[in-house]
Amino acid sequence: MNGVETPSDEALILAIRAAFPALDNKARQQLRVQLQLSASMSHGTVSLSAAPRERSSFWRLLLRRSCEVPRVVALTLFGVAVFTLGVVATATVPNALSGLRESGHPTVDGPSRSTIVAPSQANKPLSVIQAAHLCLGPGQSQTGTTIGAVAVAGYFQRGPMTDGRPAFEGLLVADRRVRLRAGAAPSGALKHKFVAISAPNRRWLTRQEAATLHSIRPGAYIELRGRLRCSGGMAILILTRTG
Amino acid sequence: MHVRRKMVAIGAQLQEPENADDEDLARRASGDRSAFIPLYDRYAARMERYVLARVGHAHDAEDIVSAVFLRALSRINTFDPSRGTFANWLFGVARNAVAAHFRRLSVAPTAAANFERMDEEMNTEISVILGERDARVRTAMRSLTHDQKDALALRYLGELSIAETAAQLDKSEAAIKMLVKRGLESLRRQLGSREVD
Predict the structure, then answer these.
(1) How far is A170 from chain B (nearest CA, A)?
(2) Strand, helix or coil at A116?
């Protein structure tokens, strides 16, 4: 309130705010996770553990602000840090990758598969908007990029059960309109070789339900494993479930 | 004494994210993107209300808010504190996103249908308790001029200052005060005193 409003306006302003409520916490948390992922991906890799970023900014700021510390020391510290990181990465990344392969997590070349997991286990929820941001732009391909767990909007299947049409090839169409909402694929759905999840919006899902879409149960997550590629500005997850 | 002053200055720079000002966090975020998260926490609710008021549909608003913050994060390097506050920059991104949304829909920003859709789909319990009054407020908001609506949404839902709202709408502060005043008067006329008490 600064200068324009009178005391009698306050009730009116509260009424305006009540008429346009903020989103629910769940949606906000999902977006927060997306932003955290985006922030970590902007550095080129997804950080698997909490990196002590505050410490690095502390040193940077201290070095910038303090006249007593010569620049040579700063450069030396930086060099030592880079060298240390290099040594650590060389020692740990191959082990981590082999660990991931053994545990069935997505890897670039390894077999991928899909499993239903509990929300608490879906440690890297990734929306299709997030996936789309992995695309650098139309025509640029990033085949082989892996994504982790995805909150599911719905289960879309065009497998052998459909009338005469070829089996669906297993695409996650990452249109910006797609909104992934929590849901669970029906039991047995993942027995099929290919799974696709696609939904321009919830209405679209509703419209499709009669023909091809199974009912979904809010609150569950499905973990998708596959390879992501970009085509026409869209991120496409190719699920190549084996076994 | 000089060293002490310097230490205090450094301490202020290193303050916790929750205490740091927006511009400082934005500056940090251009180097360390994780510093953007506290900014999101600060602005999420304001942005959601503002976008909802502009597009009138909760699901569309959710998508747009998501796009706004992701875009802001990816372009945080372009934020220049000398050209305005972070809030102003962020709401500039939001206004562009809303405009793009309406271009995609090829409808005017006044889309009455969207508000009706929102009324239909509002969550059950809340809409039962507050639905009638809120629907009347939304209807009354619809009847305002485009500038009045924009000014009220930025001012009270986006919680921008008069100066920031003026910068957003490219108008003088006096013009914004007048728009807000007339907008509130118009709403009061339509709603009557009973609705807003």
Answers:
(1) 25
(2) strand
- Kindly determine whether residue A15 and residue B191, on different chains, have CB atoms separated by under 8 Å: yes
- CB contact under 8 Å between B157 and A34, yes or no, is no
Claim: this prediction has a pTM higher than 0.80? no
Is A115 a residue whose pLDDT tops 60?
Answer: no
Q: What number of other Cβ atoms are within 10 A of residue B93's Cβ?
A: 18
Residue A11 makes CB contacts below 8 A (sequence gap 6+) with B196, B197
- Report whether A118 contacts A152 (CB < 8 A): no
Q: Which of A18-22, A202-206, B89-93 has the lowest mean pLDDT?
A: A202-206
SS3 for A154-208, per residue? Answer: CCECCCCCCCCCCCCCCEEEECCCCCCCCCCCCCCHHHCCCCEECCCCHHHHHHH
DSSP B165: H
**Residue A236 or B16, more confident:** B16
Q: How many CB pairs under 8 A join A and B?
A: 139
Tell me whether A231 touches chain B (CB under 8 Å). Answer: no
Nearest to B157 among A9, A17, A34 (CB): A17
Q: Is the ipTM of this complex over 0.85?
A: no
Question: Quick one: DSSP state of residue A24?
Answer: P
Cβ within 8 Å, pair B40-A32: yes
Of A99-103, B97-101, B152-156, minimum mean pLDDT range: A99-103
Q: Which of A190, A191, A208, A189 is nearest to A200 (CA)?
A: A208
Residues of A in contact with B48 (CB under 8 A): 22-23, 28
In DSSP notation, B131-144 reads: HHHHHHHHHHHHTS
What is the pLDDT, as a whole number, of residue B136? 81
